[in-house]
Amino acid sequence: MKLRLYLFFSFTLVLLSWPLSLFAQPTTYVISGRVTDAGTGEGIPFASIAVKGQTVGTTSDAAGRYSLQIRQLSDSLLVLSLGYTTRSYPLASLPRQTIDAQLKPTATSLQEVRVYAKGGDPAYRVIRETIRRRDQYDPSRLSAYQYDSYTKIEGYINNFAEKRKKNRRPGPIGRLLGKLPAIIDENGKPAVPVFISETFSNFYARSKPDKAKERVLKSHVTGVGVSDGGLIAQLTGASFQQYNFYRNALNILQKDIPSPIGSQWETVYTFHLKDTVSLGNAICYEIEFSPKRATDLAFVGTVWIDTLQMALAQVDARVDKRANINFVDELHIEQEWDKTASGIRFPTQTQVTIDTDEPAPRAPGALIRFFATARNIIENDPKDVGFYDPSIELADDFRTADAGFWKSVRPDSLSPSEWQAMRVVDSVRNVPFIKVAGEIIKLGVLGYKPINQLNIDLGPILYSYAYNTVEGNRFRIGGRTNTGFSRKWLLDGYVAYGTRDQAFKYSAGVEYVLNRKPWTVIGVRRTYDLERIGVSADNIGNNSLFAAYSRFGTIRRPYFQEDNLAYFRRELGRGFTQTIALRNRTFEPLFPFAFQPQTRDLDQEVRTTYRTTELSSETRFAPDEVMLQNDNVRVSAGATRKPIYTLRYTLGLRDVLGSDFTYHRVAVTMKHSFRVGVLGRTFYSLGAGIIPSTVPYPLLYTPLGNESFFYVGNAYNLMNYFEFVCDRWATVQFEHNFAGLLFNRIPLLRRLKWRELVTAKVLAGSVSASNLAMIPGTDAQGNPVEGFSSLTRTPYVEVGYGIDNIFKVLRVDAIHRLTYRDNVSRTGIPVTPFSIKLSGWLAF
Fold it and tell me: What's the pTM?
């Protein structure tokens, strides 16, 4: 009976619906599907889809998908794309139908015929008008905007299963990778996933003043050699996935690539108006562009410009291996700009693919994909300026998110290959060989070896051993605590021992995080170690490699120093950091040294040691700098557009904690870099200072020399250690890298990807008569006392020229010393008027 009732009602519904279907014709027809490469199965982005005999059409998205609505049906659908043969597909009389098009790459190249109106290709008129209106449509010109951001990054090892010549099997690395869990990529070849991340955040930006902030709400990171930590979560968020083609250049992989709608559009690119197509609800010009010189660092691709707004609607841009970018076979950016509530366009979807160049023939390669979306865009609702500090902020529970959350925030469901990759990457990272390789990668990058059971990191490994004339064999072991120990307390230190001087050296420090927003810390440190005048940690700065090297070889003018430091550091606002410190230290020389106080209220006897107590203030302003939080340590991601200023003032406090002197020291520095169009990028730093007091010469300014065989960026590379001393000084350091501008035009050198550069460094300074008079001829025992050299009215000048990117890592600098070429150095080391120095720079 139930079956009969079911059949009855079903038959009745069919009879009732059948007549209605005969008379109710649809008002619109929907055609959708995907356009793919017939050979590889990979989606073809921005292919043109049109109905035969009509003017309506659309283009495919970044994955090759499309959807077209029409009111009048035709007999066929035309699908075409540059570099592929055009195909026609029959249309059925259905309200909705799916047509998946497969295009074959064209095998022949037809001679191009262009017919232009007076004034040349009309594409130039369109681009010129687009640039004229870019202030109106550039998102960075809005008073403010914010959106929900989802980013996904995938990393794969590929091209490891290729057979070698004479059908030989892949090499040992290829065979090893072939045994790992893998997926099948779009080309039908195995690829081993080694990194996958997903990040969901809120991104905010405003102008006047320019501010940006990202709140990372959730993040999940899985990969070889990485942990699901805060630093990776910040690096994979929206802050580092900003691609605005309205800017004059896009900074990608440390390269400034001119935008086709930037200020250099007519100098760098040629344009061709290909077609007029429908994108969504807008009619757009489809314009192809390419660099005037194939070897220039520039894009080739297509832009779609809204015909009514003259605003950017889509862009498909590539940089191939002919451009001077290391380790990159191809860089591909696909971006969609959708209309917002106010009517302007905003980049809502961006996909970046980087296919790396194999380091050696038949070696494995790598493929990296970046995918970012912007949703729920809100315009012109600026927050208070203080809201944007810090520029990147992690939610306390950013690591906790279930599968349901990620499903709700993903713009599209993951493809089967992406789901498989997320499952496989955990298996790959747990393979013993890969696990060891990951630990080696972390050790090389961070310099510390984690001991998880004790919640400490051993290192830095770079400082573990040295050999010099004072200590002999120097052995050092150090470490620091991590967040497993405490999120408030950071303890670090080391112990060192020299086999020749048989003396122990040590350092111990404690830092407490008072507040993370704004960043506020307080700390104390005590150190007892061997130092050398002119090559101490104060003037070496953050150059850890040079600091480790300075412990080797002959140590001239060495001294032991007991250093006690207490400091307070606080971030006062975006870019402003204030540090107040109290420092007490001793000077115990191991060389002939003496000074004779020149003030009446001090003992006039010749002395060989002293103690100082200093109260110092450092104000640092870096408005364009992005600071990242790596557990309990802050890391700078650098500044790309605006200078970094630093002002330091030091006050010597006599009779405080046994201090012997009262003195003042003021120093200011500025560092900056900027792009000079197609000529490359310039880096420079300026500095000046004064010590208007009478103190022993170890307390004066000693410019950093360099007696090594390698080039040091912040040093005077043909100046000996402790060659000059100043109490008034001004410095200029300059470097311009042409990024291969000249070598790219020489056929024999083009393939080498060498990059030419020039450098110049100038130091002007002097020493007051009172500071010169502090040096006696002999010490209290009658032994001769070593003095120092000072500059005259002639500044110290060295200039150089060099080649960067030799074998992608090596740099060679030829340096000429132009002044003080016959200087008699107090150190006894002869002056070198010319030298060739090497250095290693791993850069793109």
Answer: 0.75
